[in-house]
Each structure stands twice: as structure tokens, then as C-alpha cells.
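Exercise 7. Predict the joint structure of the components listed below.
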Amino acid sequence: MLTDTLLDFFVETRQHTETICQPLEIEDYVVQPVVDVSPPKWHLGHTTWFFEEFLLKPYAKDYRLFDEHFAFVFNSYYESVGKRVVRTDRGNMSRPSVKKVYAYRSYVNEAIRALFSAVQAKELHQILEIGIHHEKQHQELLLTDIKYILGNNPLLPAYTPDFLEHPTESHEQLWISMEEGLYGVGYLGDGFCYDNELGRHQVYLNGYSISNKLVTNGEFMAFIENGGYTTHGYWHAEGWDWVRQNQISAPMYWHSIDGEWFHYTALGLQKIDPNTPVAHISYFEAFAYAQSKGLRLPTEFEWEAAQSHFPWGNRWEWTESAYLPYPNYRKADGALGEYNGKFMVNQKVLRGGSVATSSQHTRPTYRNFFQTHLRWQFTGLRLAK
Amino acid sequence: MLTDTLLDFFVETRQHTETICQPLEIEDYVVQPVVDVSPPKWHLGHTTWFFEEFLLKPYAKDYRLFDEHFAFVFNSYYESVGKRVVRTDRGNMSRPSVKKVYAYRSYVNEAIRALFSAVQAKELHQILEIGIHHEKQHQELLLTDIKYILGNNPLLPAYTPDFLEHPTESHEQLWISMEEGLYGVGYLGDGFCYDNELGRHQVYLNGYSISNKLVTNGEFMAFIENGGYTTHGYWHAEGWDWVRQNQISAPMYWHSIDGEWFHYTALGLQKIDPNTPVAHISYFEAFAYAQSKGLRLPTEFEWEAAQSHFPWGNRWEWTESAYLPYPNYRKADGALGEYNGKFMVNQKVLRGGSVATSSQHTRPTYRNFFQTHLRWQFTGLRLAK
Amino acid sequence: MLTDTLLDFFVETRQHTETICQPLEIEDYVVQPVVDVSPPKWHLGHTTWFFEEFLLKPYAKDYRLFDEHFAFVFNSYYESVGKRVVRTDRGNMSRPSVKKVYAYRSYVNEAIRALFSAVQAKELHQILEIGIHHEKQHQELLLTDIKYILGNNPLLPAYTPDFLEHPTESHEQLWISMEEGLYGVGYLGDGFCYDNELGRHQVYLNGYSISNKLVTNGEFMAFIENGGYTTHGYWHAEGWDWVRQNQISAPMYWHSIDGEWFHYTALGLQKIDPNTPVAHISYFEAFAYAQSKGLRLPTEFEWEAAQSHFPWGNRWEWTESAYLPYPNYRKADGALGEYNGKFMVNQKVLRGGSVATSSQHTRPTYRNFFQTHLRWQFTGLRLAK
Amino acid sequence: MLTDTLLDFFVETRQHTETICQPLEIEDYVVQPVVDVSPPKWHLGHTTWFFEEFLLKPYAKDYRLFDEHFAFVFNSYYESVGKRVVRTDRGNMSRPSVKKVYAYRSYVNEAIRALFSAVQAKELHQILEIGIHHEKQHQELLLTDIKYILGNNPLLPAYTPDFLEHPTESHEQLWISMEEGLYGVGYLGDGFCYDNELGRHQVYLNGYSISNKLVTNGEFMAFIENGGYTTHGYWHAEGWDWVRQNQISAPMYWHSIDGEWFHYTALGLQKIDPNTPVAHISYFEAFAYAQSKGLRLPTEFEWEAAQSHFPWGNRWEWTESAYLPYPNYRKADGALGEYNGKFMVNQKVLRGGSVATSSQHTRPTYRNFFQTHLRWQFTGLRLAK
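Solution:
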């Protein structure tokens, strides 16, 4: 990518983050109701700190830090670059103020522009590109964290009419048959991708079938009615413990009111449309649903091999695959090597993308990953057999 | 008190709460870094809800609730008046917004004024008076909660130059001798007092001596240097567990920087003045300090009997007395009966008052109480023997 | 006491501990189902270690420790005498074996006999006496810990027919009137007592009435039927939290079977006799019961002043008094000073004695103390007003 | 297998379990120092209950349960067959006594013999075989649980001289090269295997090398000396948290005494032989070790494809593979279907076998599995690249 195009991409991405926050009250920027959800203010600062830490500090001549404490406040998990606020404490910090964080963003934006107007900066394209994609990843979290913050407030305030969460999947459900054989897996191209997609390699797949359609809210309601959450045989032992300890009996944000199902959305509390794809379920729930049908989730390889045959992008789709390195995977050196590799244990791969995914942020080889009990993302499922 | 005077007192008190909040950023109103500290926004709302719940709802004709959800959001611990937000969740709520809470305050202020302009309202003076004193109690918490919120922020922002935390006690330390005999204890007068002060009764005290001066920062530094926090023999078993589990080695807000003691104050980080009274210590620490001197804390009765002989009001002073009912104590009926009685177990009595105590809010018979490990109030100690 | 008499007392006490354990299987000696309950094996060893540590080690010439590791294994809480097994880990230790612990007892018994046959030992009478009373105190715990171990086993095995838990209080309930005035409190004599009973002093009591009879099981059943455990107004805030978090709805060991109340006893599961005094209730429950009657618990001073007017000794009786030092209380120096003083915070005083109390172990001035939520002792209540 | 041979196998297996327990004191049968370790008494009962529940109850005419409470006491995790003692409570139960449990074993042994002397019992061979292998699996746990119980006792008692934990791997370390291509994986034969080994299928492997030798204690000491436990870059994020929260700095049972490494073994505390394979490490540690060498763990498929080229059976070997179902895996119906399938999440596969593995219990396709932080099994590692 040429510097100009890349800078445009940078500016546009930086702007989009602020657009997402535009409907918020200042108070909404501050809170952290559970450990996995970060305050919007923190996302704004952290994505900015990433550019400061990995580009401006090492490469921008005479660069002065906006505030020397911000490295401590806005580092997320990079052990290589110093101490950081414990993740559970992010919601305890009223300062820096939202206004100050926006000033920090402008300051860093300006410094990046200045850095990249210099000729020698071309070598830094790759880091800038990672920074942009890193921010896009946080845009998705920002949306789902905002949903969590407002959707768990007793007043259930609406977020914005501009975010449409619930696309219809109106096509007929069909099974796509895939033949036994060797398939190529992993990224092959010269655009941007993460290191965990690299190492294009062959996998041998038995013959299988995969649905062309996501499981819908209506189908999930039937699962609930048929005792899905009370039948231990559908669940992993660990999933069953999770269900009982947390008294789970429906997807996140679902409320049963006078015998009807509602859910919290960007518009506030809404009646659930049975024809839209189910969202906000954990891997445990996706697995149990498949078991109740005598079916299963696809592996990430089955998904990747078949993905051109069905529409996707509305839901992150849980797969049966554990998040593991591809053959010949090698962590990058230094702090950027902490991006993916150190999370490759006890998580499941998700494929696809969701209504919260930023443009240009997903592709057929993209591997998202979460722990098996989490469900504040727009997570759904597709069946295989 | 005549209605007019009382209404003036009401208006002035309501105004003072907002004055305390004046230096805050909106973000500061929202967070709850630990369970004992409530968000300032919550104090603003809760003190208002108190008037709405106990005066307007039952007595104001045609009164319309400002928002029906606020009873849920702003009830603190009154089990008799319905469900309430769990105390640990107060800092997870970004809404209602600060602006909305101020509107709630104005709305209720206006309704109270209207109610008390009606002739029949004279019977309600007592409840209004409790509400005013309730708000004064929260003013103190508001100040100490703000200090906690800012003083535990990694940026250590100043609060305001207008709040002076550190009065000097420059008089010479002397022992006041009190003779053995019967002393009267408890409120005797016709002004306002809480139910836990009532039931004036006699207690028999052995002869004792009590210091005319609070223990100072300098004396407490010596305690630290002499191994006070590492000598188990000075501590209660429970206090010693607390010290070790929480790695306590100095009063709250104290920082040792290059061999010198600083503390966080309303002005930000300041060098500690050895001549000012120590603050922000738990009962456990007060007890251990006394033990290290071969002395003890006074009981609340010894304190009350001797209080006219020494100046007080700079620090809440820990006593050796457990918080228990006076003879013939009887809880009031209904929700207001929950004010004091139900906390009379496993807490210690504090006497005096502090730099954060609102005017007209303390008196010689006033009994404050906290759990033995808490120290975010301006708590200090006076020795006895 | 003369050496011979004291040695007889020692031998008899040591023997009685073993008699209590006689009905046990070896397995029963080992387990620790909750932190407050210690394995019987540990009691056998700890009471023995006390004599070894405080008498034999310092005073017996050429004494050789039975096993150098036992100080670590059997020290309870004496910080002054070295490291110790964490209390929660006592039930994780299968070794030393029960047989070895009995050998330890014999070895120490013999060494004590030898020590006290020497002339100079007369100075050590006081420590021996403390050791004997210490063991008597543990005999009580031994009985209640055994009850807990067997009574929480799903097989509910009987302990022994020789331990009678349930004395009848068949006399008529009457109120004893006590006049306002000064009363002497604390031990006055030359027999054995603990340091927390010393410092005979005067207290001024308002006039009061105290029941001549303990509250019975039948009365407590009525409390349950009348919603005692679901009426928050009867409870302290902390007690109410305890009830809900632990789902308490009856005294410990009570089981409702087909609409009838049974309880686990030394004989196994038995129908409850409504005329015997209630046992195994926490302070929180005792307080709530009194509140439900519009009455209260006596203070420990009221109890002591009135105790000659009613029979007692069947139940430890909760009082309203916090466990605090008497005037002029002074901790003994060294490890023995840790016996009482360091527990004088956040506990309540119990007066009386119980069916599990060893002979010669209680007296009118004896002060027992426990935390407010505990109830595995034979704790009951007497009302006052 | 013919009935006679199978019955011999049964008798021999049942006997071997008791032989393992022969060196124990009765006390050792009872304790449960951590949740993953069960009391030996429980293993003795649970393996017996398995035969009673799945063979005698459904198929033995007129069979009378030994004790109706034992299903509750000795069920491990089979949700389909009723309530059970919570796993953390197994060490709180002193009853049934060890003697009673041995009587239970004899009773059930006799009943099984009687059942299988009847002609029609041939259909039940499969269940009996599962029961035998189930008991063999528990024999391994029994040995490692005993080691944990004794090895965490402050007295560090020896277990038995007859159990040799530390085989030497004296052959030269070499890399075995395996070619890229398709390999068959899974059980193919007519002997016994578990359902998780079935479904022989092809996997495509890139070319790789695998060591012919396990990593040794000496090599692991070098890892420690070189800062292995303090270099975050070697660890997964979750592994790093585990290291810090549990202050892990060496394999389990290792003690550094005066600068030399000792470990607890069946013989008591012994100096560590640097030439024997390392044991008692978690997956996190195995992964970090490999990272520190710039190498990796083999996948379970790589291991299975190469296993004929190296000796194995001394250590359970951690692999990089998550424990997942093979293609076409289908849980058996009913309670026996809970054996494997419900654990197929968030665990890692181990291949090989160990010094604690019973004869005839492992094979090249055998898949063991544990959570990533566990290390009380004889777990080691082999490198790949």
C-alpha cells in the first residue's frame, strides 16, 4: 500500500472509532461492569497508545509523550513494555477524563501524520497496518462492550438507531456436501493478515455436510422449550457446571416477559424475531444445541473449505476447533509477538464475522478466538454432520 | 424548629452537597473503586430518594415520581421499601446521567418546598429533620469517597484547594485524670439526635486518664520505624491477618518516596507534616499503636465523660467500645427503624467528628460506627490509660 | 494445690480426653469438614504439645522432644513459638498416625510425672494448671467437633449412647427482677480462672428482668413457623446476609422430614423433644429470636449479677455483650499472653456452660466467646427485658 | 475373551488395587488434600460401585445392594445415575470405614463371580471389561493420589520401596525424521479400547522431527537456572498467570535444599538424578520448556505416527493437541456415554503411559487427557520440531 492510501486508511479508521462513541453520554465511557468488558474510554486510549508505543516512541524523532502515565494506564497485556493497570481496575479510574483522551487521540494522529510524511517512514508501513487492524479489532469490542454496559443497566437505555444488529437469513436451509480429501488452509495472498493465519498447509478432511444457514432465534427458542438447558446429556461437564453456577437459561440479553421473548438491542428492549440468527451464545451453548439435534459444529478447517458455498458475516460462528498454532507457526519477536501466540490454549476458534465487525476486518482465513463461556460478542452457530 | 428555619436548613444542606461536588469532572461521579465507596452520583441520588420515599410519596398529594426506576437504583439498604441495586454494582451504572440526577434533585427540592408551604406539614418536621441529617451524614461520605476515588487513581489528581484536611494540634500533650464514679451518658436535650444516643443512663467508670491530644503523624512514623506493622504481639489475631493479607504497612494514602513520607490530600501528593494528627487508620491499627505504648484506647463512655476537657472535632476517634444499644434502646417502627439498630454488631464506636464532618452534624453524644478494618474516613486516635 | 492433687487432676484430665475418643473409628480422628472444626487427632496432639512446649522444653532437664516436627504440626495459633500448619490444612494430614499420637501422649504424660516428682517443680504449678484447663477447653471442642464430623456424614452414624445432650428444663418460666444499682463483676477467689475474668470491678445496671429458663426447642419451632427466618426486621443486617447466603432456615442439625422436626444427636437421628432447650444456634439467631418477642438478650453483666437465681450449665448462653477486656486487663507476657487477649474483637460473650463442658471447667465468672455466625457448640439463649 | 479368562482378569485387577493400598495406614485412606486428589478409600469404593451399578443392579437376579447409601457416596460424576457427594467433600467423610469398604469389595466380587458363572452372562462381557479397565485407570490415580497425600504431608513419609518411579533413559538423544504425508490414526483391532480412540482416520502431516528421548531432570534444572520460570515470553498468558498466582518455580515435589535439588518419591525425600526423565510438570511448563529451546511439543497425531521409532511408557507425555472427538465420534447412550465425551473441552491430550500405569492399560492409540495446569500425574515431555 502506498503511504497516502495507508494514511487515508488510518484517518478513516481513527475517525470511525469516534463515530461509534458519538451516541454515548460521558458517563458511559467510564464503567466496566465485568472483567471482559472494558470502558469505552479505555479503548479510545489503548488504541492510541499502541501507535505511540510501537511507532512514535521508537521512530519519531524528538517525539514527546502526551503523558508519561498513559503507558501504565492504557497498556493492555503487553508484558514486554512495562507495568500496566490490572484489567479488573479499568472501571475504577475516572481520570484521565474523556476530554483528555480525545486530546490524546488528536495529538497522536497528528504525530503519525508527521511521521509518515517523512520519506524514511516507508519501512514502518507494516507496523502502521497492524495498528490500524488492531484498532478495527477494538471497534468490534467497543460496540459489544457498549452493548453490555447499556444492556445491563437497569434502565435499559437505547444506544443508537443506526446500528442494525439483526439481519434476516431468509434463504432455505440446505446441507452442502463436501467430499473427502485434502484441502488447503491458511492465508495465501499479499494483503494484510495476522500471523495466526499464515503457514498455508494441507489438511485431510473426511466427507461432511455443512448447513448453508445459521441457526435462528426461533430454533433456539424451541431448544429452550424442549429442556435444552436442563438436560445434562447435551452438555460438556464443564459447560453443565457453568449453566448451573450462573443459572443460565437463555442467550445473553434475552428476557422472558409474560411468556414472550424480548431481547436488549441497540434500540432498547425489542421483541425477538424468530427468523434472525441467534446471537450471544457461548461455545457451551452452541455445542449443546448441536448435540440436542444429534449434529455437531464444524471444525474451522471444514468451515474454511466450504465457506464459498454459503453467505457469512452476520455472526461470529463457533467451531469445534481449539485455537492452536498452524504448522510452522512462529511468534514474532518482541512485544508484537504477544499479539496472538500466547492465547493459543483453552480457547475455541470462531470463524466468519459479525454485524459489529468493521469493514475490511475479516476474510475467509481470519481466526477469531474466545474462551468457551463468553457470549457478549455476536456469537452464533452453523451446524455440520 | 419553625417551618421557615427548617426549610432554610434544608435548602442550605441540599446546596452544600452540590458545592462539595463542584470541583468534580463528570467521570468522577460514576466510579466505585471498592465496595465501601459509593459513586458521588449515587450519593446525590440517594439523599434525594430519601425525601421522595419518606416524605413525598406518603404525604404529598398527587405527587408524581420523577422516575419509577429510581427507587430501585437509589435505595441503599432499606429492606422494607423494596428491591435495590446490590451495593457492589453501583459503579457499573453509567445511567441515569449526572445531568439527570441533578434534575432529580431540583424536582424533589421543589416538591418539598411545596409540601412544607402547606399548613398541615408541621407534623412532618421530624422526618424532614432526619432527612437533612441523613444528607449531612452523606456529605461526609461524599468527601471521603471522592478522596478515595481520586487518591487511588494512578494520576493522583488534586480535588480542590478549598478543603483543608490537616489541622495542627499544637498544644502540649497532657494526661487528664478522671475520678472513679458514676457518669451520665447519652443525649439529654431537645435538639436533634439519633435514636442510638437516646436513653440517658449512668455508667460506673474506674478512675482513668485520657490524653488531651490526638496521636500525630510524627508519632505514627515512629511506630512504623519501630516495627509496629511487623510485631504480631501488638495486634489482635484478626488484625494481624488483615495486615498480612492486605500487606498493610502504613496508613491509607501514605507513600514512601526516596525515604520520605508523602500522602495524598485534597491538594494532591504532599509531604506529611509530623505535627498534624494521624488519619486514615483502621481500628486494628489504632489498637496496635496503643498496645505498642503499653496504653489503650478510651471507651466511648470515658470519652464522653471527659470530652469537655480537650478539643476535638479534627478526627473521628476510634474507641475500644463495641457498637451496642444503650439500655432501653428500641428500634423505630418501619423503614426508618433500619437506620441504626440493625448495624449494632461487629462494629466499633467512633467519637468526635472530623474535617469532613458537616456543620451541626456532631455533638458530645454522637456515636459514629465502622467495621474494624475500614480506614477511608478521617479516623485517628487518642490514648487512655 | 499440692503437687499430688494437681498431678491427679492432670492424670484424670488426660484420661478423660481419651475416654471421649473411645467410641471413634480411626478414620473419624482425621477429617476436618469445615475450618472451625479440627480433627480429633489434632486435639489429642495439640493439648499434648502444649505441655511439651510450655513445661517440658523450658524446664525439664535433658528432655528430648518426641518428634521435632510436632511443634509445626500441633501448634494452633501461638505466633510466638514458630511456624504452624495452616488451620484449613489440618484435615489434609494423614500422618502422624493416631497410634503415634497416642504414643506421644503417653510419652509426655510420663515426662510430666517425672518433672513434677522433682522438688523444684512447685514453681510450675501455675503453668500445669493452665495446661489442664486448656485441655478441658479442648475436650468441649472435641465433643462438638466429633458431633460435626459424624452429623455431617451422609450416613449419620451414632456417636455413643453415653453422651446425653438433651436435658429437660421442666420448671415454670418466670421473670426474675433485678434492681438498678452497682454490681461487682469478675473473679474474686483463689482458685483457677483465666486472665479475662480478672479485675473484679463495679458496673452500674439499670433495673432489668431475666428469665429463669432457657428458650426451648418448641418455642423455637414456633419462631420458625411464624416466619422468623424470612422476616428481615428481626435480624441484624449482617445476620440477614448470613441467613440468605447460607440458606439458613433452622438450627444446625435440624432436619424436617415429612413435616416433623428431627435432629442429629449422639444417638443418631432423633425426633426433637419440644421441652428441651434449643441448641446449635448462632448469635444472629438468638438475637432475631429475642427481637421477634420484643425482648432482648441479657448483657454478660446482667447474667453474672443474676446467675445465682436460676439454674444454668445446659447451654452456652449468648449474651448481648461484645468480648472486651475488663478495666485494667493486661495481657501476660510471652506466648501464654496470646491465650485470650488477641481475640477481643468482633466476638460475643457466652455465659454458662453446656452438656459438653468438662467438670470444673466453668464458673459464674467464666467468659466464653465465639464469632456471631458460629453454632456448632451447644449454644442456646435466655431472654431479658 | 472367554468368561474364565475375563474372570481371572477381573480377580487379578481387583486384587492389584488392594496390593497398591497395602502399605497404607488407615488414616491415609481418608484425606483429600486438594480437589483433584481423591481419598484412596473413595477409589476402592467407587471402582466397586461401578460394577454394582452397571452390572449387578441391572442384571443380577435378586441382587441386594450392599448399602443403599453407597450410590450417593461413591458415584463420581455420572449425572444419569442420581445424586452424588460433591467432589470437594470426599475428604470430609470418615465413614464408611475402610474395613466396611473392603467388605463391600468382597461382597461385590462374590456377586460378580456368581453372575458370570451363569450361562447368559456372556452378553455382559463388554461391560465387565469396561469395569476392569475403569479400575485400572483408577489404579493409576490411586498411586498418584497416594503420592500426593504423603508427599504433601509435613513429615514426608515413605510409601513403599516396591514402587520404582525413576527409570533411566540412557540412550543418546536423536531426532527421528518423519516425512510429509497421510497417516492413519486411531484404534484398529479387536482388543479393548475406549470410544475416544475409535474411528480410524487419515491425517495429513507436514514433515517433522521428533526426539527419541524424553526431556530429563538435568535438562529441566538448566531451564530453571536460565530463568525459565521468570521469562514471560516462554509462557502462554494463562500459564504465566498460573505461575505467578501459585508461585510456581519448579516441578511438583521438587525441593531446593542448600543449593541442591531433592524430590519426594515413594522412598521419601531423595536427591534428584539428572539423567532420569522429568515428571510432574503441567502442560504450561512443558510448553514453556519447548519454547525456551525454540522447539515445540508434538501433536498427538505426530506422536502416534512416530511412536514405533522410540521407547515410551515411562511418562505420560504432554502433546500440543487439544482433546477433541475424532471424526464420526459418537457418545454411547446412557451413563456409560459420560465416560469420555463430556470432557472433550479445554483439556490437552497426553500420550504414552507412565510408571504408574497398570499393565495392559495403555497402547499406541490410547488418549489420556488432563487440564493444562495439573501435574500430580507422572507427566513429562518429548520435543518435536
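Discussion. Chain C has a mean pLDDT of 94.
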